[in-house]
Each structure stands twice: as structure tokens, then as C-alpha cells.
Design goal:
The chain has one domain. Helices cover about 50% and strands about 20% of the residues. By secondary structure, it is α+β, with helices and mostly antiparallel strands.
């Protein structure tokens, strides 16, 4: 294998490792923020989410799927059903509309999915 290809492969492997570590860190910060929100410490929960989003922005890593729908895009609070969020389901023919309302700022996150 030529030297340049070897360097390129090493660079790609290092990037994949960095992405994997970043995703794990974001998920761990999210879990900690949910724990704090359940205890009623919403400000610390928000700060933990802010740190996770900072990792996302700095390393240009996609947010893990649990984070995409579990964070209020307005106030960055973790959306925990019954604690910081209200979840409503509405059936619309072949689709289901999931409406998640943040109880801290009132933002409504609407997602439409196909019935399975």
C-alpha cells in the first residue's frame, strides 16, 4: 500500500473514532440531563444539553436519533414525558402525528410518521 493511501486511511480511522467518542459523550450528557430534569434541576439539565450540542457543533457530528426528538429546539431542555413534556398522538389516516409540548417554554414539536 503506498504511503499516501496509508496516511489517508489512518486519517479516516481517526475521524471515525472521534465521531464515535463524540456520540457516546453526547448520549451520556443527555442521560445525565434527563436524570437532573427528573429531580427538578432544570437549569443543570439545560447546561448539560448545551454541552452536548457544543460537541455536535464543534465536531460536526450528526446528533444521535434519541437526541433529535428529545431536546426542545427552543429552550434546549430535555423532553421527558410527564416531567418537562406532554406527548399527544393523533391518528390521521395512514399517518400518526406526534405532538410534543415543552412544559418549560411551550414550544410544540410536531412529527408525522407512517403507521407501522
Amino acid at each position: 500500500m503506498p504511503r499516501e493511501q496509508h496516511r489517508q486511511r489512518r486519517k479516516i480511522d481517526a475521524r471515525r473514532l472521534a465521531i464515535d467518542i463524540a456520540r457516546q459523550a453526547m448520549l451520556q450528557l443527555y442521560r445525565l440531563s434527563v436524570e437532573r430534569a427528573r429531580r427538578g434541576d432544570y437549569e443543570t439539565a439545560r447546561r448539560l444539553i448545551e454541552h452536548a450540542l457544543e460537541i455536535h457543533r464543534r465536531l460536526r457530528v450528526r446528533k444521535p436519533i434519541p437526541l433529535r426528538r428529545a431536546i426542545c429546539p427552543n429552550c434546549h431542555a430535555p423532553l421527558v414525558p410527564g416531567v418537562t413534556a406532554r406527548v399527544r398522538l393523533r391518528s390521521r389516516g395512514k399517518h400518526i402525528r406526534i405532538t410534543t409540548t415543552c412544559l418549560l417554554c411551550g414550544y410544540m414539536l410536531r412529527i408525522e410518521e407512517r403507521k407501522s
